């Protein structure tokens, strides 16, 4: 199927179906169909959107050429918010496309991206995207990697107050949060949250390995002692 000269193509992958890929030709140059296509997706199903959406989210995502107008980004922003999508933690370059001009005539933009919903994050514990260097195409390839646990139980990261007492906790949080991230305010917030979460998970694993198991063991021991006290209330050894 030929791609419209002034249109766009949306490719989505539905994680609830094995190898199910949906392609939609977007014929409206305004890109409004892109927002409509996104808002039709069921938020209760696993959804990953990857590729060239031919749209930016802010003026920071474009360098050179005509300035970005509100009309260009408003529909896409609303669709992302309505579908409760998030950007993946990104490694590599920031801009994913350029017009291959030289010097001040060069235009660069972030046209390619990976968006996922919360249902996808529940299934894949570690997932991120790497922006590779361009080759034949003037678009940079996006490489998505994830760690899948088929027998995984609901082991979500829990923040324990004792983490704040770990040596270097405050410095770790400050350094992680101060590391610059390019993009919209919402994009920066999501990226920083995901990065800090990964850092805290490592800290929790290194300093307080499986503390939930230790807490449960102490709780069971305490309950056992309390039960014994009900039978032998005068036993001083208890």
UniProtKB/TrEMBL annotation:
Annotated signal peptide: none
SUPFAM superfamilies: DNase I-like
Feature: compositional bias, Basic and acidic residues: 11-23
Protein name: OLC1v1024278C1
Residue segments, region Disordered: 1-28
InterPro entries, per the entry: Endo/exonu/phosph_ase_sf
Biased composition (Basic residues): 1-10
């Amino acid at each position: 199927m030929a791609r419209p000269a002034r249109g766009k193509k949306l490719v989505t992958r539905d994680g609830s179906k094995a190898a199910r890929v949906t392609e939609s030709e977007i014929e409206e140059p305004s890109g409004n169909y892109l927002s409509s296509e996104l808002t039709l997706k069921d938020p209760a199903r696993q959804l990953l959107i990857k590729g060239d959406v031919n749209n930016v989210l802010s003026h920071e995502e474009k360098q050179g050429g005509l300035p970005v107008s509100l009309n260009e980004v408003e529909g896409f922003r609303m669709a992302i918010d309505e579908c409760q999508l998030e950007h993946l933690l990104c490694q590599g370059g920031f801009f994913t496309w350029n017009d291959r001009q030289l010097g001040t005539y060069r235009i660069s933009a972030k046209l390619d991206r990976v968006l996922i919903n919360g249902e996808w994050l529940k299934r894949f514990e570690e997932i991120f995207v790497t922006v590779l260097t361009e080759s034949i195409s003037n678009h940079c390839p996006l490489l998505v990697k994830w760690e899948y646990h088929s027998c995984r139980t609901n082991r979500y990261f829990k923040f324990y107050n004792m983490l704040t007492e770990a040596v270097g906790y405050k410095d770790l949080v400050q350094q992680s949060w101060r590391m610059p991230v390019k993009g919209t305010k919402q994009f920066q917030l999501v990226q920083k949250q995901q990065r800090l979460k990964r850092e805290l998970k490592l800290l929790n694993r290194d300093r307080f390995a499986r503390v939930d198991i230790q807490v449960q063991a102490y709780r069971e021991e305490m309950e056992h002692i309390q039960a014994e006290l009900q039978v032998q209330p005068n036993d001083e050894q208890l």
